[in-house]
Design a protein that fits this description.
Blueprint lengths: L20 E11 L9 E7 L19 E4 H9 L5 E5 L9 H11 L2 E6 L13 E6 L23 E6 L2 H13 L8 E5 L6 H11 L4 E2 L3 H6 L6
């Protein structure tokens, strides 16, 4: 990022103090592996903790532990990479109350920011400048009952809905949600196969057969680096 464009984060009365902290599992620089931002150099801030336990979860190491960091420290570490794009992820980042403040401060500083959230927690208070990536849970995840469908009312065209699919039953369920809830009219919709479980070509063929208005995606970072954390 051109350092001349970076501004100091604004202090929002009542919701942050110099002592405000978040528990962070890792902060790292990589290529965005998913969403419409795929391939873009991005700083990832992975927060610790998640109330869900999806059967295919690939970041279980973020459920516990982590390091308590001041918001100012997090922003300083992000700035050190000199990138324009930042993704707040987890775990489930919205499970920590100061995540909303960090998102706002990152946007105030001039970054292009995306939030990866499970869709099980309320997104209505997320700053409108943030691109929300809402990961709706399928039956195969074991957590579909946790979907907070009211979140759909708070999506804008620069947000995205993601379905991670385990098998054909998940695909059929996601197709039904797509059509019944008219999801493609809200924002871009992504269909992604569970890595190592659903053959990507099979999912691609289903999408083409049914002429679905969705974006097929695979996890670029796993193609490049496998299951190594921090990529």
């Amino acid at each position: 990022m051109n350092q001349t464009t970076i501004k100091q984060p604004a202090t929002v009365a009542g919701d942050t103090t110099p002592a405000a902290t978040l528990r962070v599992t890792e902060i790292f620089f990589s290529l965005q592996g998913e969403t419409s931002r795929v391939g873009l150099p991005t700083v990832f801030v992975r927060l610790t903790g998640c109330p869900l336990r999806c059967g295919y979860c690939d970041t279980a190491y973020a459920f516990h532990g982590g390091e308590s960091l001041a918001l100012t420290t997090i922003i300083d570490r992000v700035a050190a990479y000199g990138a324009r794009h930042v993704t707040l992820t987890g775990g489930e980042p919205l499970a920590q109350k100061h995540a909303l403040v960090l998102l706002r401060q990152l946007a105030d500083t001039g970054y292009s920011v995306s939030l990866e959230t499970s869709g099980a927690l309320d997104v209505s208070e997320v700053d409108v400048r943030i691109s929300k990536i809402l990961d709706l849970k399928t039956p195969g995840s074991g957590e579909s009952a946790r979907n907070l469908w009211a979140n759909l009312d708070h999506l804008t065209p620069h947000d995205e809905i993601k379905f991670v699919l385990c098998d054909e039953q998940d695909y059929i369920w996601a197709r039904e949600q797509l059509q019944a809830r008219r999801l493609a009219a809200l924002c871009p919709v992504l269909f992604s196969p569970v890595h190592g479980q659903l053959e990507p070509r099979q999912l691609a063929e289903w999408i083409l057969r049914d002429q679905l208005p969705v974006r097929f995606q695979v996890q670029l970072h796993k193609l490049l680096w496998g299951e190594v954390p921090g990529h």
